[in-house]
Design a protein that fits this description.
The complex is a heterodimer of chains A (about 300) and B (about 350).
Chain A (H helix, E strand, L loop, with lengths): L1 H4 L28 E10 L8 E8 L10 E6 L3 E6 L10 E6 L3 H7 L6 E8 L12 E7 L3 H12 L1 H4 L5 E7 L8 H9 L3 E7 L9 E2 L2 H4 L10 E6 L2 H14 L6 E4 L15 E2 L2 E2 L6 E3 H5 L6
Parallel strand pairs in A: 7-8, 7-11, 8-9, 9-10, 11-12
Antiparallel strand pairs in A: 1-2, 1-6, 2-5, 3-4, 3-6, 12-15, 13-14
Chain B lengths: L1 E6 H9 L6 E8 L2 E6 L25 E8 L2 E3 L7 E6 L1 H13 L10 H8 L1 E6 L25 E6 L4 E6 L14 E4 L26 H7 L2 H5 L7 H5 L6 E8 L2 E8 L20 H20 L9 H5 L6 H23 L1
Parallel strand pairs in B: 2-6, 6-7, 7-8
Antiparallel strand pairs in B: 1-9, 1-10, 2-3, 4-5, 4-12, 8-9, 11-12
Classes of the chains: A alpha/beta (about 300), B alpha+beta (about 350).
Bound molecules: flavin-adenine dinucleotide (FAD), iron/sulfur cluster (2 copies) and FE2/S2 (inorganic) cluster.
The site of one iron/sulfur cluster has 13 residues of chain B, from helix 6.
Chain lengths: ~300, ~350
């Protein structure tokens, strides 16, 4: 009798009771990470200003992911931090993360050796809408470490079964200096794919450098591409993203064809800890991939 | 519905029988301050008409909770804690449990938080109404009835003149548990009991939800006016029954890493500080904006409840004199005013 009058939103214990019995199982507990072995470590940058390494990891259980998603990596006894997947998503048993030494967790990670153990949980977040981009040209612009989260998409689209679904591919990769480029060992293979242009730029001239010089936002005007038919995919420091998307919009690319991925400080990766919101959106679940059209409707708190 | 009528001493005797199987938490006075406290003797329970200083949220969401132990041997999860009975919870704090249930559920951002829910499942909530509104409280402005909340498993009403306790059992699943009380069993409607749910429908329908364009609010509201005297102490968020932000802290000892989940606060500069040094919320102006809009706009958008119960704790505790109610009212005045003035422009 009284039951019927109770608030229909009332908490119903029976609906969750069985769900949370055994929290030791990762299927019920999203905070449980997977034990992961470091197979190899590649030193990417050779400059004094930044230390970036690629960690080749073998998780005890394969983690399948989509381009744009990220994982939370734990260094034992130190802490956890989020990193974008940086390797081809079709390779599931080894995962690559490209990580800059910048603070507590990353500094301790950079001290580890092949054979050491770390822990991963994920994948988290949304991904690049590569289906939607079919039939179009793609213009990637990456600044510094921004190339890492784009690499899964780059590799996926270069697969023979996917390549013909897309038009011309342009890649403009920016680094502070010639010593700061990432994945240099990929460039030749990438530029040899059909209808692909790979351009490199550095911030300041260097002797014997025959590539471009300057920030990407000042260079895109001089690069010819089919504005009407192009998706721009950008990743880099917030200043670069803002300046570059302004440049692309001025050139006439619609905002819903410009995609980027954002970074925020994160703890949980699953929309609970309250760290990563921009307005009512949570970058860890609603992002990290956003179109400029979406970002335009959100407060600029990033 | 079954209602138990018993003497105060019978109530205490019954509670005494729960100690073996349950953690019992109830308002109790320590050095003059009333607070939700772990009870070891029923005589400690103080059911006076006063709002406990802190909220009871740490029963479901502890200040520090070890969620994982990681070692070379594997990963293990600390055992599920003992079930808890929470006695004498005020309607505002019961409403806050509703907010937390939503925030930690799948409904909010697709994932459900298992550590919250394993405590929640075994929590028994026994509510108790307020007789008088306390200074700084504004639950009524949010449409919360201070006398009763049906978002509880049972509800107490006390006849102080005759030292009699009425226990209304709202969830019949607990009827057998509460047979531990030496009490007279009454049915609702019997002349001896007052209608506990009678005021629900009369509760005010005022609603302070902010419903405006996020970008406009960010730019057009003078946030710095509200946040000027903030000292960045974070008390407002620790004391709040609905603040739920957290951080992990890993502590290693003898090869075992404990991952501890600790309360964090959006009022601290480090909350959003990137490793690069960039901070999307650079000053207290942006941080207070986050606290207000998270409660009055983002949680309502994502979980359809306002994440403030009007308990007034943050207002009473703030050393800087910040007042969330005044800020919200001012925002509503300005946004409603701007809507009106825009409509006038169109004419
Ligand atoms: C979606 C996403 C993708 C990302 N992808 C990449 C990527 O591909 N490559 C990359 O290099 N970076 C990436 N980042 C950035 C990366 O997450 C940060 O560089 C990293 O979190 C820095 O961690 P840190 O501990 O080294 O830095 P810090 O600034 O030292 O700390 C950051 C975190 O560590 C914790 N911490 C700091 N000090 C302590 C302490 N004393 N005790 C306990 N905890 C402490 C903090 O609580 C904080 O959460 C990404 C970020 C996001 C959000
Ligand atoms: S309690 Fe007051 S002074 Fe302290 S952080 Fe909150 S608003 Fe600022
Ligand atoms: S914001 Fe203040 S008034 Fe609202 S629930 Fe939290 S402590 Fe109570
Ligand atoms: S990282 Fe915790 S809410 Fe997004």
């Amino acid at each position: 009798m009284f039951e019927a009058e109770r608030n229909p939103n009332n908490y119903n214990a029976s609906s969750v009771t069985t769900e949370t019995k055994d929290l030791g199982c990762a299927c019920l507990n999203p905070y449980i990470p997977i034990k992961t072995k470091i197979l190899d470590i590649i030193q990417e940058t050779t400059s004094d200003s930044q230390d970036v390494k690629t960690f080749i990891l073998s998780p005890a259980k394969p983690i399948s992911f989509e381009p744009g998603q990220f994982v939370e990596l734990t260094v034992s006894g130190v802490g956890e931090a989020p990193f974008g997947f940086a390797s081809s998503p079709i390779v599931e048993d080894t995962i690559q993360l490209c990580i800059k030494r910048t603070g507590y967790v990353t500094d301790n990670l950079h001290r580890l050796r092949p054979g050491d153990i770390v822990y991963l949980r994920g994948p988290y977040g949304n991904s690049f809408p590569i289906k939607e981009m079919e039939g179009h040209d793609i213009f990637y612009v990456a600044g510094g470490l921004g190339l890492a989260p784009l690499r899964p998409m780059i590799e996926l689209i270069f697969l023979p079964e996917n390549r013909q679904k897309y038009g011309n591919i342009k890649m403009l990769l920016a680094a502070r200096s010639t010593k700061d480029f990432l994945f240099k060992y990929d460039y030749e293979r990438w530029s040899n794919y059909p209808d692909t242009d790979l351009l490199l730029t550095i911030d300041n001239p260097e002797p014997e450098w025959d590539g471009l010089v300057g920030f990407p936002n000042n260079l895109v005007h001089d690069i010819s591409f089919d504005i009407q038919n192009t998706y721009a995919v950008l990743c880099g420091p917030p200043v670069m993203i803002k300046a570059l998307s302004d440049a692309f919009v001025k050139m006439g690319i619609p905002k819903n064809r410009i995609y980027t991925t954002l970074e925020m400080r994160m703890t949980c990766g699953i929309g609970k800890c309250g760290k990563c919101n921009i307005g009512h959106k949570y970058v860890c679940v609603d992002g990290p991939v956003f179109s400029m059209e979406e970002l335009d409707n959100m407060p600029g708190e990033y | 519905m079954i209602i138990l009528k018993m003497s105060r001493s019978a109530f205490h005797d019954g509670i005494g029988k729960l100690f073996g199987d349950y953690r019992v938490v109830a308002p109790s006075r320590i050095n003059g301050t009333l607070d939700y406290t772990d009870i070891v003797d029923p005589a400690q329970i103080d059911l006076s008409d006063e709002l406990p200083y802190k909220s009871p949220k740490e029963i479901l969401f502890p200040r520090v909770e070890t969620i994982l132990r990681i070692s070379d041997d594997g990963i293990d999860v600390p055992d599920t804690p003992k079930p808890t009975i929470l006695i004498g919870v005020k309607p505002c704090d019961i409403t806050a449990i509703n907010v937390m249930d939503k925030v930690f559920s799948k409904e909010n951002n697709k994932f459900s938080d298992p550590y919250y829910f394993r405590r929640r499942e075994s929590l028994i909530v026994i509510g108790m109404g307020c007789v008088h509104k306390k200074p700084g409280c504004f639950c009524d402005e949010l449409g919360i009835d201070m006398t009763f909340s049906d978002y509880s498993d049972a509800f107490i009403s006390i006849d102080n003149d005759n030292n009699i306790v009425f226990l209304y059992i709202l969830d019949e699943k607990y009827e057998s548990l509460f047979s531990i009380f030496d009490a007279q069993v009454l049915e609702s409607g019997s002349p001896e009991v007052s209608e506990i749910n009678s005021r629900v429908n009369e509760s005010t329908t005022k609603n302070l939800r902010i419903d405006a364009d996020e970008k406009e609010l960010f730019e057009e509201i003078p946030w710095e006016l509200y946040s000027e005297s903030c000292l960045e102490c974070g008390i407002c968020t620790y004391i709040c029954p609905t603040c739920h932000c957290f951080e992990f802290r890993d502590v290693e000892d003898c090869g075992v890493t404990c991952r501890n989940r600790c309360w964090d606060s959006c009022m601290y500069p480090s909350f959003t500080l990137h490793a690069s040094g960039h901070n999307p919320r650079a000053t207290q102006r942006e941080r207070f904006r986050q606290r207000v809009l998270h409660k009055y706009m983002y949680v309502p958008k994502n979980c359809s409840v306002i994440a403030c119960t009007g308990c007034g704790r943050c207002i009473r505790a703030c050393p800087g004199g910040l007042n969330i109610l005044r800020a919200v009212q001012d925002i509503l005045d300005r946004t409603i005013f701007s809507k009106v003035s825009k409509a006038e422009e169109c004419v």
